[in-house]
Amino acid sequence: MGNKLSIFGGNSNIELLDEICKLVRVKRGDAFVGRFRDGETQVQIKENVRGNDVFVVQSTSFPANDNLMELLILLDALKRASANRITAVLPYFGYARQDRKDQPRVPITAKLIANLLTRAGASRVLTIDLHAGQIQGFFDVPLDHLYAVNTFVEYFEKKNIENLVVVSPDVGGIKMARAYSKRLNAGLAIVDKRRIDDTEAEVMNIMGRVKGKNVIIVDDIIATAGSLVEAAKAVKNAGVQDIYATITHPALCGPATERLSASPIKELIVTNTIHIEKSKMIDKIKVLSIAPLLASAIKRIHNEESISILFDEV
After folding, report:
1. Disulfide engineering: 190 pairs with which of 207, 247, 265, 300, CB 3.0-4.6 Å?
2. Catalytic residue among 4, 27, 46, 193
């Protein structure tokens, strides 16, 4: 495309936004994103974007409602400012846990958010490690779903840890765990668990050989850390050596940091799809940047090049 590339963003993750802009070699779009006195989100685009190819970087993490409204209003403002194409870049796609009706009279919030994004003005969506793959089908506009697996694999290849086994904390994460296992040439194990509620899970059994091994527990999101810590305790009791965990989206809610500090996990490796407050940073947490992956995807989309090379599906 011959259109000018512009990158804007809200307040959810300014550090990631600036890093992406630096890698793409464009100046961050000039926009005011603040609040009216009554708390409503106020947005003003302060530069000409008519005919531009615009990317809006915003994670819908905590505070989810505020960040979501910033994103929707930014999309609307850019659409009304006559941007040619608007791509919503959501490093973390929130409201994804409710992706189906598994109980009576519950919403499907993932579909609702998909509708809101497209109605607000998004003509394309770019995201990383969706909580459920079927969410891609909720969109009526193109969606590019990237995976953080290679970012983590490169980190572990540099550490050169021997005798590795990749562990999925539940049956639903087998596909992701298998991708790590294949790339690291490691074994594979699964924690069979029964969920008590949305914050607690009871480990039932471990399927696979883990005794005497170094393990990597992989998952897409960590909220209260209940499931992760229970899985770590289970493999520790099974006789493993060091325990690592890789989580793409570090939501870190409630007692998460306290649980992690007291857990047998040696190192928790996460990405910067969600900004971690200083009060939640502990020595066990290692943050890897996802900016190079997103920057590469943005440049390829702008240049109308295939980004399938970046998908590296799990």
Report:
1. 207
2. 193
